[in-house]
Amino acid sequence: MITIDNYLDSHYIHRSNWLRAAVLGANDGIISISSLAIGVAAASATREPTVLATVAGLVAGALSMAAGEYVSVSSQTDTEKADIQREIKELKEMPEAELNILAQIYEKRGLKKETAMQVAVELTEKDALGTHIRDELGINEISQANPIQAALASGASFTVGGILPLLVVLFAPVKGMEYWLYGFTIIFLIILGATSAKTGGSSIRKAILRITIWGTIAMVLSALVGYLFGVNV
Questions:
Q1: Measured between alpha carbons, how far is 193 from 142 in angstroms, rounded to an integer?
Q2: In angstroms, rounded to a whole number, what is the distance separating the alpha carbons of residues 119 and 122?
């Protein structure tokens, strides 16, 4: 039975925070590690330098992604908390002004002036702070940032994404390895694009095109750098 408590459970928006971090991490892991490996492989006649660079890039990249995501999302959380504290102060010092602001928000959403004020009054009486946090600041349970969740999703997905090109480096022929890397990376990106689109309920074709085009650009530029500035090692 559908109720107000479970109505949004089947909607994709609940997945937006962790899905964004996971797709970003996996995409970055696949593309950056593949691009790094392609650049080194293009300038190397043996497997060892490519393996070493790939493993180092994988470890550093995973830690960097997790730390960066944690710091970034934590900054967003700190900003949200600062705004909430400001809202608490304003509700205490100028409740009438805050009530009028709330009424204006509802009026702009389509309610008549009298109805908007009535809604504002009733919601303020029930939960003034929660109402202002949701309707004035736009912060809710769905959009609220979670630094730990984002960091774990990003770091873990980068590792999973980066392991895929590492496997290619370990088992593909040394001669022409950059071409093997490119081919398999495109396959990996197609799978990632299709999976993320299906999970998020968006267009699979659009996701695949977007992720493969930008991935190809990154790998081609990396290979070009390897050819232009590399020497056999």
A1: 23
A2: 5
Q: The tokens of 201 are what? A: 């309920």
pTM beyond 0.70: the answer is no
* Token pair 């650009």 in the structure block, residue: 217
The H or E element spanning position 74 is: helix 48-93
Which distant-in-sequence residues (6+ apart) come within 8 Å of 27 by Cβ? Answer: 161, 189, 192, 211, 215
Q: What are phi and psi of 182, to 5 degrees?
A: -60, -45
pLDDT (tens place) for every residue of the chain, 233 residues total: 554 454 445 444 455 555 666 777 888 888 889 888 888 887 778 899 999 999 999 999 999 988 988 898 888 888 888 988 998 999 899 989 999 998 999 998 888 999 999 999 998 998 888 888 888 888 766 556 678 887 888 889 899 999 999 999 999 998 888 889 889 998 998 888 888 777 766 778 888 888 888 878 877 786 677 667 654 43
Main-chain dihedrals φ then ψ at residue 43, nearest 5 degrees: -110, 10
Greatest distance between any 2 Cα atoms in the chain: 78
Q: How far apart are CA 191 and CA 208, in angstroms?
A: 8
Q: Token digits for 133? A: 């946090």
Rounded-to-integer distance, Cα 140 and Cα 134, Å: 6
* Helix/strand/coil for 178: helix
The CA-based angle 159-176-178, given to 5 degrees, is 35
